[in-house]
Amino acid sequence: MVLKSSFTILVVATLAVFSSYTPQAEAHSWADCIDWKFKKSGKQDWSDKGGKCTGYARRYPLNKAFGSLDSAWPNRHYQQVHKNPSSALACSNRKAGAEPGSDETRANPPSKAYGGKYGKMTVTSVGDTLCVRWPAKNHAAKGQKSSKVQINLSKSKNAKDISQKELLKNTIAQLTFSNCNSGKNEDRRPCGGCFKVPVRAKGIYLLQWRWMLNKNEWYTSCADIQIK
């Protein structure tokens, strides 16, 4: 009886431990929108009430709650190879990288990665302002040291994706990651930044959103942008 009672207590205690355990969601960011349009001129409001998205990353799924795609499959956070990120794939192929998931390889033609269940391709012009949005994912809290987002834009129009090393020669903007709306939910706070489209001939180009969370820990999102 004593043995049975002790076993029962052990089982109950074990179940209590597991029932109190809540898995922590992965919290790495990605480009939620490539071409965010504000409803009010001169006011940067990254919330769904403050604007709308008119251009997306490759194969970006529509009708998903903002900031939820770290727990969905395939996830959107592609981490480049940690030891040598500058030699890693520029865009996720759903297999490579420390956190495989989304497929952001170039479609042939590029338009096949957009429309239907996916968001639209970004269409813009030289000199236009593009505003990119991303979720904070607990990395933009008050007092935290802010990291930077690189915006890289290929110079090769209507061409295959270039390497990460080549993209790093074409960094057109450095954005502040913690440029976010205020709010208590540090995971789902919307953030973003804007930049001018540089001189390029008319065509379709690879644009890369690239964010460093920690030293040599980079996350990327890839998009095609059509310059008219």
Automatic annotation (TrEMBL):
Signal peptide stretch: 1-27
Keywords recorded for this protein, A-Z: Signal
Sequence segments annotated as region (Disordered): 84-113
Keyword Signal: yes
Protein name: Chitin-binding type-4 domain-containing protein
Source organism: Mortierella hygrophila
